[in-house]
Amino acid sequence: MSALHFGFDHSYARDVPAGFRPGQPARAPAPQLVFLNRPLARELGLDPAAWTDTLAADVFSGNRLPEDARPIAQAYAGHQFGGFSPQLGDGRALLLGELIDRQGRRRDLAFKGSGRTPFSRGGDGKAALGPMLREVLIGEALQALGVPTTRALAVVATGEAVRRDRPLPGAVLTRVAASHLRVGSLQYFAARGEADSLARLVDHAVARHDPELATEPDRAARALGLLLAVARRQAALLAQWMNLGFIHGVMNTDNMSLSGESIDFGPCAFLEAYDPATVFSSIDQTGRYAYGNQPHIARWNLARLAEALLPLLAPPEDDAAQQRAVDRVMEVINAFPDLYAAELLRGQRAKLGLAPLAGAAADPERDRADTALGDAWLNLLQNQAVDFTLAWRRLAYAAQGQEAPLRGLFAEPAALDPWLLRWRERMAQDGGDASGRAVAMRRVNPWLIPRNHRVEEALEAASESGDLSPFEELLAALAEPFDERSDRERYAEPAPREVTARYQTFCGT
Ligand code: AMP
Ligand code: MG
User: Do 302 and 376 belong to one domain?
Assistant: First the structure.
């Protein structure tokens, strides 16, 4: 494959002709390669060894497009903080095409920050370097933690200043995603009453994410199947986020993917001290997207997805049929809390060092008891404002008899005693050896997460003084979140409490 022929396919453009507008990247005056994800490039079947830095900077700034790229801005709508915008769309992004990766998976390649598009409204279509490097760090961290996520292939500084509250270095990020299909993508056609395009988009989504549904002859069944599949993926995703203390920050329906990947986590942040009310995003005044509210928001977003699919489930003019369709989608929406709870418990059992239940045998009583055990643990963390990540990590040491590091996190460690007793009794029921259990626990309870103060430090150095070494060092550490290394202690330490108390994140638009 030549350096400028990527082997793109364009199934979205073929399948959903009304779902995009063609676009062209803006010219970058002095592109400089800041980040290139070589392993990801190889995973995509590309050959990064053939790219000089100059060529990569040209290509991933948009100055020199691969010859088979076909840049388009995708259309979508979205509920932003609960209010509906019938037309958002890629205002600063361009999909270049799709690649079939080495494992046969279809992946989107898209620019972010590449200039104005027909969907830009008042915006400049640009992105600042800091927020794009933030997307790199968080995406790679989530990936290493085993969470489905969009990832960054490259970041190029454009050499142009973008105007925010002050001039900032501009950048283009190249993003890889299982797809960029969002809840809002379907809402777009539903809001316009374009049932034909809506149906095409459903079939496109099914082909990409739920191919086993593609042979289902009934259109309504395909749409309903997609809804259920998205609900399952989101339940699993949300459980992973919650078990890691991840706060997405802006779970608008246009930022919730059909693929179940984490996407558009601009103002995201990880919890430090455990508190479900935690909000870091400066624009989230009411706490709509607070840590503890995320599962509820996911359900709310799924209800919006269900509404968008209704025109395909029954003829809109047939009231009785529509009512039956509403009943059917409500079954899925109402099942979501249980789907989520089961996923959360599955993850929590592993974090607590409890064996997964053998076989498919449901044991509601044990589920209730284990859920209560997990809740009681979280209550302890909340009551004493204990660091979420370190507490879980040190629980693994407590499992092998080393309680002191865990106790050291609590101002009043005696409060732990009754819970530890309960936990030990529960582990004894599972049997197994303590050191094996501790090893397994350390594989699911990370030592490192992207600590907010470390992320800010790295972005500031890159953005203010062009010093990339803190970013690169942090990125390397986040790629190995389960490994304790003495030279990485500072990444594991929580931020000083005053710093977290006034910490705010921004969408970076
Ligand atoms: P986001 O908050 O990044 O998920 O973006 C929400 C919407 O605003 C999307 O339609 C974006 O394309 C659009 N948008 C964000 N920033 C810009 C910008 N600088 N220029 C144009 N559109 C933007
Ligand atoms: Mg978005």
Answer: no
Asked whether residue 283 falls in the same domain as residue 430, the answer is no
Name the residue of 79, 80, 92 to mutate for ligand 1: max ligand atoms within 8 A of Cβ.
Answer: 92
Is residue 27 located within the same domain as residue 176?
yes
pLDDT at 5 over 70: yes
Q: How many C-beta atoms lie closer than 10 Å to residue 424's C-beta?
A: 12
Residue 269, domain extent: 184-349
Find the catalytic residue in 90, 254, 264, 284. Answer: 254
Residue 4 lies in a domain: no
pTM, rounded to two decimals: 0.97
The DSSP letter of residue 355 is P
Q: What per-residue string of b and e applies to 71-106 under the rule 16 or more CB within 10 Å gives b?
A: bbbbbbbbbbeeeebeebbbbbbbbbbbbebeeeeb
Residue 357: inside a domain: no
For residues 291 and 327, membership in a common domain is answered with yes
Residue 181's alpha-carbon distances to 18, 20, 152, in angstroms, are 14, 12, 17
pLDDT number for residue 76: 98
108 is catalytic: no
Q: Is the CB of 140 under 6 A from ligand 1?
A: no
